[in-house]
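Hi W., the acetamide complex you wanted:
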Amino acid sequence: MNYRIDFAVLSEQKNDCRFGLTLHNLSEQDLADWSLHFIMDRFIQPDSVSNGELHQVGSFCSLTPKQAVLPANGHYYCEFRIKTAPFRFYSDGIKEAFVQLNHAEATVRYDVAVTPIVLASPYQERSEIPQTLQAELCLIPKPNRIERLSGSYLLATTSQITLQSTQAEQAAMWLQQELKSLYEFEPQPIGNADIVYQINPILDEEHYQLTVTSHGVLLEASSHVGFVHASATLLQLVQRTQSGLIIPCVKVTDAPRFKYRGMMLDCARHFHPVERVERLINQLAHYKFNTFHWHLTDDEGWRIEIKSLPQLTNIGAWRGVDKEIGPQFSTAADQHGGYYTQEEIKRVIAFAQVRGITVIPEIDIPGHCRAAIRSLSEWLLDTEDRSEYRSIQNYNDNVLSPALPATYRFLDLVLEEVAELFPSQFIHIGADEVPDGVWINSPKCQALMDEHGYQDAKELQGHLLRYVEKKLRSLGKRMVGWEEAQHGNKVSKDTVIYSWLSEQAALDCAKQGFDVILQPGQYTYLDIVQDYAPEEPGVAWAGVTPLERAYGYEPLAEVPADHPIRKRILGMQSALWCELINDQSRMDYMLYPRLTALAEAGWTQSALRDWTDYLARLKGHLPLLDKQGIHYRAPWK
Ligand code: ACM
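Structure:
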């Protein structure tokens, strides 16, 4: 490449760091009328930039230099400040860049190579995973009761799957598909009835029993999802030996610890194709998750087709230099985007249902709405609003106005289609990270506050969310939202709260009578870096989450097991935010093996969980990940 950026930390203090950026012109040509554009997700103090003027929208920075000509074989240099904790990882640096020639006749763009940031003080420590021997039975999550019987069952070419309950049909179909794709094994349509699905009405909904003897396999449950869990356990027991595929004889009696065991995937920051989404959902079934939370809208992209408002995806699903929504996070000089049609969404929901997984959609409001606002500005933009704010992700124009009638028309249309499309009882409405300062200089918002006697602009958030809660109730749905959903104190206790900043919000909300789901960033956010080495990819706002830390997560550990508040904990969830995740390989690397550790936190009773024991099972489990082509982070290097 003819252009290169070197970027270095010049000085760092607790919350104020200074950086130097050098752009080299390695070509034989002088550049005139040029500007530099790059991706940096922290907010650069605009008045701190030496030798140029910077305009930043989200993570997209445009720098107009004071130096009109960038000479051939010369360079440009500037410095700036970011009010941030010290950088420790290369992921913290500039991600991509291009130089633009702003000639009157045509705009020309040249890619710029970016060398890794020169860090001032990367961490020296590294997390260590003890060497361990592989367990004999490598089940994750660990079943709550498992007895090893002597001998094993040989999967024979005459083996046949027999259903004694129609409720087992889909689970059996899934088992068959997975046996084929993982072990190239195909049971016979007619043969010995030695893999039997049988209803057992004594078992509760997600409970199952699995009995393997030398003669065959018995899978017992009382529900579809119970049969899926039994199948998942069976799939992890299969071993390839010289005599063929065998299953060790066992008796498993198992049930989940938490009723809700979820995984959230952000498909807004980067669009993930349907196949990638389904691949993940399939894997979730292997680990006995029962909920897939689909983050479908955000500032940087609207990913769900709304038939009555096609602008949302015509405009809001695409970003790029010449688009309504500029580049963010990656692909600086190219277009990025995509969305799911309602037909595709129906297929994903059906795919998940076969695997015992409920899909909860998230439409994130009233913050995180930049893509929607720019797509439907004639409806959603309060043109008289002079409020000044900056969201965590550096936007000053990403919040819906509770004072515009069209906001409610927009919400009605979207929620009606969403409620129709998703069978899930829960609809997630986000509600996170509405920035301070929003709405306060809007005459319309002021009038709405006066009308209702609201003292604090936060009450406007409650006003809007109460409307949404009622709307969803009228559609037969229950509103769920991030911990900020109860800000403004207006939503009812029917709303389920997902805590994410810490566990404290969950505790406070549970005390007030809300049902809660725990998703603390410090343990369950799998976009967080997994070790201390500077090349480790990921974000670090909540620290570093090595495998051991993720494994050790125990929801509200300090609340005694018999405390009534525990009844308010519906369960827990992991999350993958995708600002930095744009392909399968990076997704796998961030998810695995930590997702398996968190699956165990949701499923297995705490008394049975043990780090060393988990590692011994993980060791024998890794070949199954290899078989699926999962690019996990190797725990043992
Ligand atoms: C969140 O991480 N903003 C819920």
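The chain has three domains: 3-114, 145-254, 260-628.

W.
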